[in-house]
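Long-time lurker. I teach an intro course on protein structure, and each term I like to show students one example going from raw sequence to a predicted 3D structure in token notation. This year I'd like something fresh instead of my usual example. Would anyone be willing to generate the tokens for the chain below so I can use it in lecture? Attribution to the forum is fine with me.
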Amino acid sequence: RAITATIWDEKKLIAEGFGGIIGVGQGSSRPPRLLKLEYKPKGAKQHIALVGKGITFDTGGISLKPGLNMHDMKFDMSGAGTVVASIIAIADLGLKIHVTAWAALAENMPSGTASRPGDVLKIYGGKTVEVLNTDAEGRLVLADALVKANESKPNYIVDIATLTGAQVLGMGLRTGAIMANNDEFRSEVHAAAQSTGEDMWPMPLPEFLRNEINSSVADLANIGSGKGGGMQLAGIFLREFVPKDLPWVHLDVAGPAYSQGSAYAYNTIGSTGFAIRTMVELARRIAAR
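-- Reply from a regular --
Happy to contribute to a lecture. Here you go:
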């Protein structure tokens, strides 16, 4: 398959200013990485960028998670796994579409070198973020990757992440959330999901929530006031790193990315590969235009 790979190691990430990925990964003895995969067949007229959250293990960092169910945090790289599997499937099928897949990879660990609540990180591209909670780390690595992905001038961009506990509380373990800056593209992703049997539901990004992530010392904060809307606030945060005129969809798959209790449908216990089918079908539809 004609897929090329580019890797940013920690030295290159620091030199180029990927403050989100470095900030999240600096507490671990395992350095962070950014992976870019590219599939560009002859005759491709459309370009879609897929961006995945790849937190290889998430303790919460200094804002440490409770011990209960922390063992499941090995699945916090599901978004990255999804975008990698999706581009491989698209290439194997020979779809005539240009795809770039970005995996933002870091381990979120507490240590003497870890980011602290109150730190300010400069995201790739220059925006600053006040870190009020180090367990809201996925949006920080995604912000870096979203800005970088846009440099390749895609026609569409989709990010996929096990991003919020609020998504699980609101939608359960088998349904993913679709948020977007473009209603038409959100509907297209929803239709692709429905046709593949993956259960996703459109969710709004209300403008009145934007003020919840204001900061007095940075461009924005990484969490809100804690008064609800956590799933949408994460989406609103990510929207800040995508051009307004670029159709973008954010998939929060915290619930369905892995089966916690029992097998169902075609899914075994453990990782489900949720959203891979949707991404392949979306690529097929875009390529057919």
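Some talking points for your students: The domain at 3-116+135-212+229-287 is CATH 3.40.630.10 (Aminopeptidase). The radius of gyration is 18 Å.
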